[in-house]
Amino acid sequence: MTTILVTGGAGYIGAHTARALAAEGYRPVVYDNLLKGHTDAVQWGPFEAGDIADEVRLDAVFAKWKPAAVIHFAALSEVAHSVADPLHFYRVNVAGSLTLVSRALAHEVKAFVLSSTCSVYGQPEVLPITEETPCAPVNTYGRTKLMVETMLRDAAAAYGLNAVALRYFNAAGASFEAEIGERHDPETHLVPLVLAAAGDPDRVIGVNGADYPTPDGSCVRDYVHVLDLASAHVKAIARLLDGRLSGFEAINLGTGKGTSVLEILAHAERITGRPVRREIRPRRPGDPPLLVADPARAAERLDWRAVHSDPDTLIATAWRFMEARRAAETVPAAEAGSPAGA
What we know:
Elements: E1 3-7, H1 12-23, E2 27-32, E3 47-49, H2 55-65, E4 69-72, H3 79-84, H4 86-106, E5 111-117, H5 140-159, E6 162-168, E7 170-172, H6 190-197, E8 205-208, E9 220-221, E10 223-225, H7 226-241, E11 248-253, E12 259-260, H8 261-272, E13 278-281, E14 290-291, H9 296-302, H10 311-330
Parallel strand pairs: 1-2, 1-4, 2-3, 4-5, 5-6, 6-11, 7-10, 8-13, 9-14
Antiparallel strand pairs: 9-12
């Protein structure tokens, strides 16, 4: 069984990817410090507690499991936090990644997949966004991801590392079985915020700008189902390990289609059958009106297409996960059964 080290594998996209790896016959070893991840999201392989900045711990885990490749999710991602405390982001995202890459190379692991982001592009003037679109990130989070990509590109040239940076657009959705889903603290993503507000008169969704040059005036984004993102990671690993991908390559993960904020609200109201209160607010500085990917390279290089990323599936699976969590939290302890693993 081929072992893959999944850093940040107790988090949202990492857990879905571990699940997808196991389904394809890999052994995902999750490495996570659990500051943002959840132990109950580690269900498809061994768990190793640790931080990507800890050289000694990383060496022990590499020596124990001898992974063939690394998928690197462990990072800070809240944009507002990155602006407020940039040095913390550079310490975790850049210095931590440097430690991880150096230890991987020390253990002769030369296949590496990075969880990157469309934030590296900043505010592009031409759509759709291709991998040749100039990178000009407008916040610290995007800059840290671009720095890690640059590090991998240089390591590929100098040390023979084979690495793929997968630049996500807007991740959303949950597993069809409602086993795992999105639960950040604090939550900043639109779909879970909208669903949390469905039917709750005390919650209001702020629509930041309704006067953009878009069909309904609200911002348009390219939403990608988390299961589609997980599939892309598995495909990238397979191609790195069999030599179809080598050197460094950046690949967009998107659908090529955009959905507006107001459209997300409308889909959520229809699927949940509950109203969502909204309040039109001023535009946020730096918000581009449209961000939509050109997914052609992913189709060519990974044989990947987003197959679950229509808005109804995104929202319905996220809603099913949220409802399952609510139901589980209301079950009295006496009825909950034995704890997992008992």
